[in-house]
Structure formats: structure tokens, C-alpha cells
Structure prediction request, 277 residues.
Amino acid sequence: MIRRLERGAAYVLLAVIAILGFAPFIYLLVLSGKRRIQILAEVPPSLDFDWEVVARNYSEVIQSQGMLGFALNSAIVVGTATIISLVIAVPAAYAFSRLRFRGSNTWASTILSFRFMPPVAVAIPIFLMVRSVGLGNSYPGLILPYVAFTLPLIVWIMIGFFDEIPREIDDAALVDGCGRVEVLWRVLLPLARPGMIVAAIFGAIFIWNEFLVALYVVNSRGLQTVTLGAATLVSAQRPIDWNIAATVGIVTVIPIFLFSLFIQRYIVRGITSGAVR
Prediction:
């Protein structure tokens, strides 16, 4: 009886969490199918939809507002920054995990602490440095700061994953004549693939959602990312079209939602394999 009550309480708690998590997105989805005047007049909004209005809202966002171009910019920045971060972070994490040197634990913790630094604290220095090297308003000017922000997280995740791999595997490969680079490349990387996928996922989601650095670095509409392009809809010079803003929110969330559905099994596999500490 007690076990059934505990199970029932767990299901109720999960249902509450699911409702609280999905309610804002459902509300946003409903608003994206309304006219602006309907949103102001109907509180809460009705579930009666005019599909011509829905089509007009999404057509305006995708075509007139240029969200596809913003999404392409975000995809280029996210993909490039994530790949560069992995290329640098994986060997660094291997060194912290396997090559014990003086102060290695302290350095690893220090690297992680950099990840906790809020972007607002370094946005202006980043803007000045990017502009001083001639990379302002460019893809490299966005990618390099994002690499710096993402590296600590990926390094820390990969350290935890490499620590879960038995050292005897390294020793056996070294006895067979492999060097450290060959051990990493040929032996450990195939075993660490789930951890690399998890690290790349977390890094990519952070970069996709980042706003402040892009606001400082980018000053042309053609290079704006999704978050920056969506923010331009809110302006003090004109009334906010809440239906269009809601539609932009849905269009912005859909790629991350589909991406999460596609890679959720890799996240579970990586976590259960010890990728996240």
C-alpha cells in the first residue's frame, strides 16, 4: 500500500512538472495563431483558429522577418564553435585525466569556474578585443568568444568521462607500442564517443541561446543570430506585435526541440556512462 502511494505521488509530481514545463510553450503556440487585436481582447485566448491568420503569421516571420537567415547564421556559428571546442577540449581533458601533474586538480577546477562567469561581465572586453583585431561584425568575431565560453564546460564533461574509462586500457595500448597521441586517437576516442556527443550537445545549446555577446559583436542584420533577430521585434519606437513575437518564439524553439528529440538517447547514454559528474 505504501509503495502504491509513493508511486502515485511520483506520478502526480511528474505530471505537475510536465504541466509547468509545457504550459508556456502551449500558450505561445496558441498566441502564434491569433491576430494582435485578438490577443489583447481575449484573455485567456480561445482555441478557435483562423488558419489564414496562422499561415500569414508564420509566412511573415519566415519570409519578411528573415528568421531562416538568422537560423542559418546560428547554425554556422554553433557548428563551427562546437567543433573547434571539441578539437581543443578533448586532448586537454585527456591530459587532466591521465597525465597527473602538480596542481592538475586545481587547474581543472579553475577552468570550470570560468564557465560560471556571466557573459555580461566580459561582453564589453570581448567587444573591444574583437574590434581591435578586425573581427567585428563577422562570423569569426562571434565564433571565437563562443569557443572560449564553451571550452570549460566541454573540458569538465570529458574529464569525468575519461576518468570512467579504466587506465588498464591505456597501459595495454602503451605496452603494445602506442604513444599517448595514438592511445587517445585510436583507443579512447571510440570509447569516449557518447561523452563527446553529450558535451557537444550542451555546448551547442548554450551557443544557440546566447544573446549578449552577439548583441555587442554584430551590428548588421545579415549576420544576426536567432536570438538577436528575435529581439529586434521588441522596439520602443512601435507597438509590439504579440502574435508575431509569439510566432518568432515558436520558430526559434522548434529547431532546439527537434534537435533534443533526435539526440535524447545519446544524452541518456552519456549520462549513464558517467559523462556528467
In short: The longest helix spans residues 67-98. Residues 66-272 form a domain with the MetI-like fold fold (CATH 1.10.3720.10). The mean pLDDT is 81.
